[in-house]
Amino acid sequence: MIPMEELILPIFLGILIALAVAINLTNNHLTDVFLLSGFSLLAAFCYVLFQAPDVSLAEVAVGSAILPLIFIISISKHRSFVVLNLLPQNCTLELEALTLLQEFCDRYRLQLVLVSDLALDDVEFKVFRKRNIDLIIESHEYDICTFTGVTTSLMMNRLESRIQSYDHFEMKEIKEGEFIV
User: Fold this and answer.
1) Which of 17, 84, 105, 107 would staple 112 via disulfide (CB 3.0–4.6 Å)?
2) pLDDT tens digit sequence for 66-84
3) Could you give the maximum distance between any two Cα atoms of the chain, in Å?
């Protein structure tokens, strides 16, 4: 007769593989958190079956308690997309750029926050500062609109692929902490 652990373990390992694939394929961050917690709990149970209770307890503490809490806090803070608008008022580029940004934010369930007037002492002209500006749009020429953002940002990569089809929009990427002007 085959012991119960030997029957259950391959099933649990198969479920772990399915959860790992589901985590990578889902687009909803909250679903990711729940799947990751389930993955961690199932992995902890597998560690118990492998007779490693200390590793199992660490997995439950970190993977099912601490990481989901950090992820949920992080997700709740990244629901807005803050844009510093330095384009001239009521120009055609501004209307088209803001329409593009609103569609972009709607697609990724973000709230578009436009900031057009910052006091010089409130800003250091870096992308990450007190106001946490994600993107700066400006125009040095009347026919080209420049979007400036941090290269390490996933949203900047998605926005860059979105604006490639426009001739009068360009993306300028800077490194985190680099000066813009």
Assistant:
1) 105
2) 988 888 887 766 678 888 8
3) 80
* Sequence ranges of the domains in the chain: 4-76, 79-174
| Cβ(71)–Cβ(35) below 8 Å | no
pLDDT over 60 (residue 119): no
Phi and psi torsions of 4, nearest 5°: -60, -35
- Nearest in space to 45 (alpha carbons), one of 83, 80, 4, 75: 4
Q: List, as one string, the DSSP characters of 128-160.
A: SSTT---EEEEEEETTEEEEEEETT-HHHHHHH
The 10s digit of each residue's pLDDT in 155-178 is 888 888 888 888 888 888 877 666
Measure the CA–CA gap between 86 and 11, rounded to whole angstroms: 57
